[in-house]
Design goal:
It is a single chain. The chain has five helices and seven strands; from the N terminus they run ββαββαβαβαβα. By secondary structure, the chain is of the alpha/beta class. It has a single domain, classed as P-loop containing nucleotide triphosphate hydrolases (Rossmann fold). The chain has a seven-stranded mixed beta sheet, with helices on both faces. Strand 3 and strand 4 form a beta hairpin. It is globular, with a radius of gyration of 16 Å. The chain starts with 5 loop residues before the first strand and ends in a 5-residue tail after the last helix.
């Protein structure tokens, strides 16, 4: 797969606008400010393809990026309390309908490695486990932890995520590129083009 051959395809604010699937779709989900856009930019070797902001809640549409025969799909972040209730409701419905549509080949669920999963993270993991969607967890911001802190968080995650069986986890850093090649290899398995 040529990861350098990528570009923005389209954004959709309501699920009825999303056209029928024409390529394999790999979705990325996580709370606001967990690093979804940064991860996607690193994965696609682009600096600013997906919009990155220090302020959470910037992604409020389902954004499709085309890369060599597949779509990378950036879902709106969840859990940002300062977004208007009507907006949260709209993109909550958009995300839920997209996730239930049966069109996702694989999903990458992002969780901040530095902190325990939030209640919203656990709700999403429960939903994914019950829905049968193939997924893994990308533990973002790995570069922010020292070696001993990482070891401690790995142990804590065994308990924090114990109810979800043996879910694959990738430690990821958009700063250093850690985890990029591993994640690309997994996604490439789903590329039928």
């Amino acid at each position: 797969m040529n990861w350098n051959k990528s570009g923005f395809f389209a954004s959709y604010g309501k699920f009825p606008q999303v056209p029928p699937p024409e390529r394999v779709e790999i979705a990325f989900s996580g709370r606001s400010n967990v690093g979804k856009s940064s991860l996607i930019n690193k994965l696609l070797n682009r600096k600013a393809l997906a919009r990155v902001s220090a302020k959470p809640g910037k992604t409020v549409t389902v954004n499709f990026f085309a890369v060599d025969g597949i779509y990378i799909v950036d879902l709106p972040g969840y859990g940002y309390a300062q977004t208007a209730k009507s907006e949260r409701s709209r993109f909550g419905e958009l995300t839920e309908r997209y996730l239930k549509s049966g069109r996702i080949a694989f999903l990458v669920q992002l969780i901040d490695f530095r902190h325990p999963p939030t209640a919203d993270d656990l709700t999403m993991l429960n939903f994914l486990a019950e829905s049968g969607v193939n997924f893994l967890i990308a533990l973002t911001k790995a570069d922010k932890l020292k070696k001993k802190q990482r070891e401690k968080r790995r142990e804590e995650l065994k308990e924090e995520l114990g109810g979800f069986g043996n879910i694959e986890k990738i430690e990821f850093s958009s700063e250093t590129g850690e985890g990029v090649e591993e994640l690309r290899r997994i996604i490439e398995k789903y590329n039928d083009g």
